[in-house]
Write a structure and sequence with these properties.
Two copies of one chain form a homodimer. By secondary structure, chain A is an alpha+beta fold. In chain A, about 20% of the residues lie in helices and about 35% in strands. The first copy, chain A, is built from six helices and eleven strands. In chain A, strands 1, 2, 3, 4, 5, 6, 7, 8, 9 and 10 form a ten-stranded antiparallel β-sheet that branches. The first copy, chain A, is globular and about 65 Å long. In chain A, about 45% of the residues are buried. At the A-B interface, strand 2, strand 3, strand 5, strand 6 and helix 3 of A face strand 2, strand 3, strand 5, strand 6 and helix 3 of B.
C-alpha cells in the first residue's frame, strides 16, 4: 500500500539469519505455491517477491488454532530471505505453533469489463508458507524489531526511543523463511470475450491510489518540535 | 479501502438468506472472537461490522488445506447477515470445505510514537468465522454474484452483460453467515508512556488515504463510449 522501499539494513551477524544471495534463487513452486488457477498470473522472479513485500505495510497471517483457520492482520518486515513478524508473547496466534501462511496484497484497481463475469481486480500479492522460528537471540530480536519498525515507519528506528529490556521481554519476534513463496499479480485492461467487444458498454480500469496525508501531531506533543523530514517527505 | 457503500439491494426471496433485522443483534463474542489482547479495541455494534465490510474491496479468506493454513485475497459482498464469496468451481481453496475465517482490514494511518514499542497502525478490521454454504439455488447464486459485483463495482450489475448459463456453471458462490464475527479498530494518537512524553521526538499519526484515479479506458473500447457517471463519480 506504500511505494516506500524499506531502508537498506546491514546483515545481522547471527548465523540463523539467511544472508546468502537470495536474489539468485528463483521461486521454486511447491505443490502449494504452484498455481492451479490463472497460471499466467504467476511470477517466478525472487525480485518480484521482494518488491511486493517491501511495498506493503501489513500482512495477513494465517494460523490454525484448534483445527480451524484464523487470519490476523499484523505488521512484518523483511531482511534478505527472512520475514520478521511480532506480537505480544501472550498472543494466542503466536502460541499456536505449527505452519503459517503469510499473505501481502496490494489492490491497484478495479477491472470493469463489458461482462459481469470478467470483472476483476488488478493486484499484486505474495504468499509465504513455513514454520516460523521464535527468535531467541537478543541481537537478532533487535534486528527483527528494527526491520519491522522500518517497514512501517522508515527512519523511526533512529528517531524514536529503542525498546527497553522490559519491552523486549514482552515482545515475541518470529522469523519466517521466504523459501516457500509465490507471487501472483494481475495488471492491465479487462479480458472480455471476443463476442462482447462490440457491445456499447464502457470498459477499462478504475485505478486505486494510496497516498500519505498530512502528518497529524499528537495533542500531547511538546510545542516547537517540527515534523522530521523522513516523515514529511515520505 | 474504499469509502463507497454498497448500493442498497433488495432481500432475496430465498428462505436460506437471512433477512431478519440483523442490526438489532449485537456481536456476541465466542471464545474465538472475544479479544484476549487490547480489549479496548473491540467493538460490539453490528452496525460497525457492516461499516467495515461495506467499505472494503477484498477480503483475506483463510482455509485449512491438508492441516495447514492458506490465506487467499478474494472478492466478497454482503447482503444482510450473509457474506458472499466466489471462485472457480475448481479452486482448491473452495473445495477444501470446513471452517473458514474471513478478514477485512483497512489501514488508516501509521502511529508514530516517541518510543519504538508504541509504534502502531490505525486500522479497522472485521473477522468472520463459520462454515460456508455452497449456494445451489440459481436465484440465490445470481443474488450472490450481484452483491459481489456491486461491492467491487457499484452500478456495474446494471451496466454490464449478466452471466450466461455457462459462466454461472463455472462459478461457485459461497454464503457465510455473519453470526460469529468480531470488529477491532485502533484510531487516534500514539499511547506513549508518561515518562516519554517530554522527549524531544515528534509524535503523531501519518494518515494513509486511498482514492480513485482517473478511469483508464480499455484499448479495445469502441470509440465514442463515454465513462458512465457511476464510474466517473465514484
Amino acid at each position: 500500500m506504500s511505494a516506500e522501499q524499506i531502508a537498506p539494513v546491514s546483515s545481522s551477524s547471527s548465523a540463523d539469519v539467511r544472508t546468502s544471495d537470495p536474489a539468485a534463487a528463483p521461486l521454486s513452486p511447491s505443490s502449494r505455491t504452484r498455481l492451479n488457477r490463472s497460471k499466467e498470473r504467476a511470477r517466478f522472479d525472487r525480485a518480484e517477491l521482494y518488491a511486493v513485500l517491501d511495498a506493503g505495510l501489513i500482512c495477513h497471517l494465517g494460523v490454525v488454532v484448534d483445527g480451524t483457520p484464523r487470519v490476523i492482520p499484523t505488521g512484518y518486515g523483511r531482511l534478505g530471505d527472512t520475514l520478521y513478524l511480532h506480537g505480544s508473547t501472550g498472543a494466542t496466534s503466536l502460541r499456536a505453533g505449527g505452519e503459517v501462511c503469510v499473505t501481502v496484497t496490494h489492490v491497484d484497481g478495479i477491472v470493469l469489463a463489458r461482462s459481469v463475469f470478467h470483472h476483476s481486480v488488478n493486484y499484486r500479492s505474495a504468499m509465504i508458507y513455513g514454520v516460523p522460528r521464535l527468535v531467541a537471540d537478543p541481537e537478532e530480536k533487535l534486528t527483527g524489531l528494527r526491520v519491522l519498525t522500518e517497514q512501517l515507519a522508515p527512519g523511526q528506528w533512529a528517531a524514536a526511543r529503542r525498546p527497553s529490556a522490559k519491552e523486549l521481554a514482552a515482545t515475541a519476534v518470529l522469523a519466517l523463511s521466504l523459501r516457500e513463496a509465490s507471487v501472483k499479480m494481475r495488471q492491465g485492461p479487462p479480458n472480455d470475450d471476443e463476442e462482447d467487444l462490440a457491445r456499447p458498454i464502457w470498459a477499462g480500469v478504475l485505478p486505486l491510489v494510496t497516498a500519505w496525508g498530512d502528518p497529524v501531531p499528537d495533542p500531547l506533543l511538546t510545542p516547537g518540535i517540527p515534523v522530521p523530514r523522513h516523515i514529511s517527505e515520505r
